[in-house]
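Now for our target.
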Amino acid sequence: MLASISHASSSTRSRLALPVIRQFATASPSTVTPPKRRFEKLDDGLTFDDFVSGDVPSPTERVVLGNTKQPRLPSFLKHPIPTGASYSAIKKDLRGLGLHTVCEEAKCPNIGDCWGGGKGAATATIMLMGDTCTRGCRFCSVKTSKAPSPLDIHEPENTAEAISRWGLGYIVLTSVDRDDLVDGGAAHIASTISKIKQKAPSILVEALTPDFANKPVSTIQQVATSGLDVFAHNVETVERCTPFVRDRRAGFEQSLRVLEEAKKAATEAGKDLLTKTSIMLGVGEMEEEVHETLRRLRQSDVDVVTFGQYMRPTKRHMKVDRYVQPEEFAKWKEVAEGMGFLYVASGPLVRSSYKAGEFFIENVLKKRRAEAAERAAQFVATQGEASGTEAKA
């Protein structure tokens, strides 16, 4: 009895120990190709002898690295990494006062040259109304949002303070577009200009403004008559390319109207104001379209124009159509000067805020104002002499 129980238990244990085999609908092992081992993969490629044989591979066999679909960056567009005491000092001032610059936001290639100058020569283009724009242009790397942060009420004062520290003769302000504001930020820009003039009356101020689309014309007039010396607004490209390069809310005709209204408002207010714009090359424009753009700018009484090469800030932005050679930039400078522009800056690394151009404009404005003061003094002297002659008579 016990023997049979023991035998049964042993039999049960042996049955429980047997593996359970399940059947799946898989391919037969004979039809599956085993993965290659590491040394087998290496055997499929080149050997050491291929590298020392001296045989030149055919064009079809040659390996090409990099992005071959885009034109290569020419040597004349390469620039050094910015460094130096002046660069560090300006950056410290800006961060300490909570200010932003288009130099950094737009990844300008000239930042090392502009910020690295000596005392009184270094300059930065301060970007007003924060670092976030309501527009989304395909060439621009500034951050975008439908509802940016509220304006910093201390920014006009802080901007004036930073500029007064640098001891410059010429400063450039720019700004993001703020379509969310009733006046597009015109009062904020005008206030900044007024405070700069209060702290440094002799400094010349250039403002690169938004287009104030769908805002009253009084917004343009407010900025143009705020004590500004150079009113800048960029058309950026030719009319045909505008919808593909700029935000759809930005129009070529609107930009021309902004420049016209600024000059008109300043003239009516008795102020000597220069108007300025900038054109990017290398975005798909045609030669005859550039000629037409220059003609229409002169028709709108624009005084200064700059030409620069479009450079793609990131892979998310519009591709470069072509890299324009320095000789072509020289040609456009000659063409624009022949059409009567007061000053033309044209070159691969030229930007709308361009230090060499600023020095020229500064000298032009100072010369104009000195001549105006001399004429006014002569007029007063003449009036005085006439009054004296009448009194004697």
User: Anything to note?
Assistant: The chain has 14 helices and ten strands.
